[in-house]
Fold this protein.
Amino acid sequence: MAMSGPRSRIDERAMGAGTTVRFAMLVVLLLAASGAMMLPVIKDLRTTDQVGCQLAAGIDPDTAGDMASALNALGQAIAYRACIAKYAPPPPLWEIYGWPVLLSLTAALLFVLLPVWKARRNRAVPLDSVDRDGELRTLLAGLAETAGLDRLPWVVVDRAEISTGAVVFGRNRRPTVCLYGGLLACRRSDPERFRAVLLHEFAHIANRDLTVTYSTVAMWRVFLTLVIVPYLAWVSTQVYGAFKWWTWSTHAPSLIRGVLLPALTVALVYLARSDVLRSREVYADLAAVRWGADPHGWDVTPRAPAGGSLRRALGSLRRHWGTHPRWEERRDALADPAPLFGARALPMFLTGAAATMVNVHLLAYLSTYELYNLWRIQLVSLAPAALVAGVIGTALWRTVAYAVLTGSPVPSGVRAGLWLGAGMGVGGLLTGYGMGGYEWLPRRPALLVLVVVAGVAFAWWVTQCAHLWASTWRGRSLRPPLLIGLLSGTLVLSAWFAWWTMDGTAWAAGTSYSGTGMRQLLLQLFPGSDTGHPAGVSPGADGMRSAVVSAVAAVWPVLNGFVAAPLIPAAIAALWVVPLAAWAIGRAAETPRWVAGALPGSGDRAAPAGEPMPSLRRVLWPGLLGGAASWLLLVAVQAYLHTSQPGPLQRGGLYEVRYLTWMFMALVGPAAVAAVVAAVRTGRGRRLAGTLIAAETAALLGVAGMLVLVSADGCVRPLDTLASSCTWHPAWQLLQWTLPRLVNGTFVLAAIIALLVAAAGSLGRRARPQRTRAAGPAGEAPGERTGRGGRSAGRRLPVRRVAGVLAVAALGIAVVEPRYLAKWHTMTPDSATAQQWTRQWSDVPALSVSAETRERQVHAWHRLGGHYLLNHATADYDYLRGVLRAAVDTRHTQLTDLAKLRPTCADFGRIAGWVNGAYFRVPDPTAQAAWQALGTQAQKGSQDCQRALDRKDDALFVTAMRELIAAGKSAATVTRRVTSVLHEAGYDGY
């Protein structure tokens, strides 16, 4: 399929330019940033006591926002959220959610007024005032018809402007063309110049550039006025306060981020907007030349380059900042539009930074009002994912299409991915999400490498999908597979953003999970024991079983993260089903119609074949064999565990944990081997796609086998594991909580292994000397000839059917699993649940603070409710002692005489409820020990008292009184300690 003769010119319209979605990204960024950036400004205008709540919770306000402080707040979620709701409530919803609406309405008004303002500012006059005989209008109408416009737009003339140019503004449906006086003057002396300029401006109208461009301009100017100006004013007060009242070194990261956020937003929006406008200028040039404009009209002598490195650097910056490309760049694009098909570094970086900022800004709308649940976070992540997929995906598809059409090597996409990942990392560092306001870097900065790796992996995968579809698609345009690729890319990236938001940032910020808490959770999920052993089986393996449980407890939080994002199954399915579908189509025997459309005038000449495309069997067979191997291993696991099967009442607990651990290994192991085999059997340009298909095929078949074996457990005697009788018990009911983690963990790990194997294979190939192998007809790999009537063609249909069945199964799991977990994904944890989970599962670190901060914490604790509880406990204690003393003195010690203490006993129980979690722990360690004792004694004494009165149990009543008296003494101890701290700190009147 090698092209003969001179290379045909590529039509730049063969694929979407992607400039509109880049404008959309800027608009979404501005709208999302408006409310998020104004939130701290509005909060600061309100009188609140958020610092008091932080101090009462034992948090140092100078380090508030880091993960340790967040965990301490969540560990006291009932008290902390109640305190915030009372003393520092968030602003009304309309004050934050109304900012994007206000921005949109004001921008719409400015968009309508901009054309009028531009015309009046330039003192432009209608065309008829300078074209008395109508000759110029007739000429312009002919050029408009040449450009394919339905009618001549409204034309005005700026006679004071001496340059030989023009400008078009307004809306797509009501454009206005402004002709400069210098252009009219050269109409007769240089008619080709006049024609080229007008066709260029008409091309902007034909390309529908106006509405999106000027709406973005309007949004940008409104954003500067309504958001940036007040935000900078607020930041200035914060910086002033830091120098005057606070410790600058402590608040420096937060304040510098506050200053850099608007600066980077301005730079990002302006640079991205300028880059898009430069691209649209080149597209207008190409359209004008296509309509007959003289290319020599762009022969303008450029200025001599400025001398000196500094001037050259400023000149380069000016080129990026400008909205029009240099004349030499425009001439080069007319000769070869290759720059329009490249994935340049600056747009990649800006897109990554903008996507992260959009994600963080949108999350602020949820976190401010405690609206978090897993589905809402997932839906928020769709916005930045769609923007990145639209911008980066389109750019990479265009790059691949250009390489396929010209026969040049298809880029790997790694370089573009590095810039994308770097942009996402910088955006995350700038916003400080997950790092706390007073830290430069997260506690585990090495994990930020995952962000860069995610960018590289995404760009690499998109490039290989685009290469497969460009090699196999037979349609008239690449837009249908491009749309499929962008939608699947959105799914993949949304899963990444959701996982990074919920789990990745927490790990990077230093979150650690309690090993004891995880083991307790496993025992809750797998009730039972594993202490019984069949005769002859030595119990010496207890240590190994305990090690297995500890290992499972360590990886359980990771597996839990794989089911937290509802779209992870869909994302994994997209990773390998999209390239599988392209591979199943197979390379066309004739020139695809989209190639002929992109190479006008090429006739029957075909595009270069490029790298040979291996047969689908080369990547599908390793996956199918891996699935069969997984079935055999699953059978072996059940046979092995059957030999140590305990009694029916002892098949939970550690036994079930070991069973699931071995099953997980039996699923992941063959997938890894399949990925390695596929990496060896595929070429560099499709290695990642091949390893993903093979690994996920093996994993899918293994999961299917696991579902069958678990559901039919007990029907084959030598394989009995959890059951002993042959009854149908579906795996999704038997392994209710474990199954999603087992399935998603298998699929995600298979994808990660495939990525690592493909990367290792590509790096190894670079290190080895290249060997040239001859390709067969139509670019087929050696030994893979697939003639239309040959033997291989007869096999292709079954392979396609197998691929279709696999794709349907993967998509079925992607649809069914989110419905299966819908209740969990849509649950918004209340304060009690969040507090319980945090205390049980997380290692909540003890916060070390200065003595002065400790005194402020004790004062806040006492002021916001501690004094009330202590006074209440003291009053109950005094009343209890008085009643008991009077009963002894009067010898009325019968329970019937002491029944009046029932309300006091109940009140002690209510105090215990506050002490044991409904109110803050005492920030002072000495007082906290007595406070904890108060909670334990009051709860036990209250329960025993009421039970004794109900049962008429004298002995139990005496015990209860002793417990309540001890609780009263503990309250007195707390009071003395707190009073001492406050007195020494100088808090008069407390």
Observations:
- Residues 1-7, 530-540, 772-795 have pLDDT under 50 and may be disordered.
- Strands lie at 125-126, 154-158, 166-170, 175-180.
- The chain has 34 helices and four strands.
